[in-house]
Write a structure and sequence with these properties.
It contains ten helices and six strands; from the N terminus they run αβββαααααββααααβ. By secondary structure, it is mainly alpha-helical.
């Protein structure tokens, strides 16, 4: 499939497409799925385009995932390897959360580039208008997070997932300040670990300019170590 011929490339993303193809072989294929997706291995990538949804915004979103990879930034896979090496944390943090967390971290870096290219933030992601952490979900979390000295594995997983969903949300018209305060009140130590990770990631340049700059390995390692210390001596069911 030629993306130019079907309207997936215009003046906004043409340079991005050309630059990526200069160092990465990108194949575009149709898919019966309803969502765009991308698979990369070595210097090859495949973008899957839903047959009934030719959308330049979603296509550019996938190109930006490839761009993050070409910058050799692999937070998601680095964090996953660390978690899987730890018997406590690998039992606590689900595969779904690992995938979600890494994807959201990519989105945090991708969105500013997407906007600089001239695209509309409302089209960055399909669930733009969806509230990522509702009051009812807050109440559900508060009811299940901890009973006495026992923490819920599922609720802890939910806590981390909801935090990063909020921080990665492209819709800045949704006010999450109250629900974030609820998270901090529920477990300030875990909340601060997430805040530190997010803050460092947000400031990390895509291309390091100084030895003093954070890199994804340092951020993922220190976040992992913080989670390990937080989970130590706690009981999870």
């Amino acid at each position: 499939m030629n993306p130019q011929e079907i309207g997936l490339i215009d003046s906004r993303n043409e340079s991005l497409w050309n630059d990526l193809n200069a160092i990465n072989s990108i194949v575009v294929k149709t898919s019966t799925d309803t969502h765009y997706s991308c698979y990369s291995e070595n210097q090859s990538s495949t973008i899957f385009v839903p047959v009934k949804n030719v959308n330049i915004n979603s296509f550019t979103h996938e190109l930006l995932h490839i761009l993050i990879r070409e910058k050799e930034i692999f937070f998601g896979s680095s964090f996953r390897l660390l978690i899987e090496s730890n018997p406590v944390l690998s039992n606590l943090i689900s595969d779904e959360l690992l995938e979600h967390f890494g994807n959201c971290m990519d989105h945090i870096k991708m969105l500013p580039i997407y906007l600089e290219l001239g695209f509309d933030e409302k089209e960055f992601i399909e669930d733009y208008n969806v509230n990522k952490f509702t009051k009812s979900e807050v109440n559900q979390l508060k009811d299940n997070f901890k009973l006495g000295n026992v923490h819920s594995k599922n609720a802890t997983d939910f806590f981390i997932g909801k935090y990063i969903s909020v921080k990665a949300d492209a819709n800045k018209n949704i006010d999450y300040s109250e629900v974030l305060n609820e998270l901090e009140n529920l477990d300030s130590e875990l909340f601060q670990l997430l805040e530190l990770c997010f803050g460092r990631w947000k400031k990390m340049p895509l291309e390091s300019k100084s030895l003093l700059d954070d890199d994804y390995r340092t951020i993922s390692l220190e976040f992992y170590q913080g989670l390990s210390d937080w989970a130590e001596n706690k009981i999870f069911i």
